[in-house]
Fold this sequence. Notes:
148 residues; Nucleoside Triphosphate Pyrophosphohydrolase; 19% helix; alpha+beta; single chain; four-stranded mixed beta sheet
Amino acid sequence: MQLRVAAYGIITDDEGNVLLARWVEGRRVAWTLPGGGLEAGEDPERAVRRELREETGFEIETTELLGIHSRVIPASQRVRRDESDVPLHTLRIVYRARITGGALRFEKNGSTDMAGWFTLDEVAALQRVRLVDIGLRMAELLPTSAGS
């Protein structure tokens, strides 16, 4: 089994809009929380700051650790077919964060191709990965449902 540890940020603006990034490396293009995998030896808070800057152009600071989501992906369901012979255990560390600088811009040649602000109603209508809802529930922006 392989292990992947990643850090993500929940960022809202003054009107309650949520910042998301569009992930293009999956089986389908889908919106996700901005963030990504830790580099070897990297602190998770540093990783989420780096990833947010790369994917959205914003400088951020974390304000709260919201939680850690653990998931095991069976080998047959892995996105990258060259790694599909073993399951993947993902640990996703989710922080609440706030913008301290920068300006919205899109990542070039990365795992995402754009970023944007969305109301919660707009988020509900988006093609999105499950992590969006998981993170929004951690931040108490969506109601908790059974089985989450």
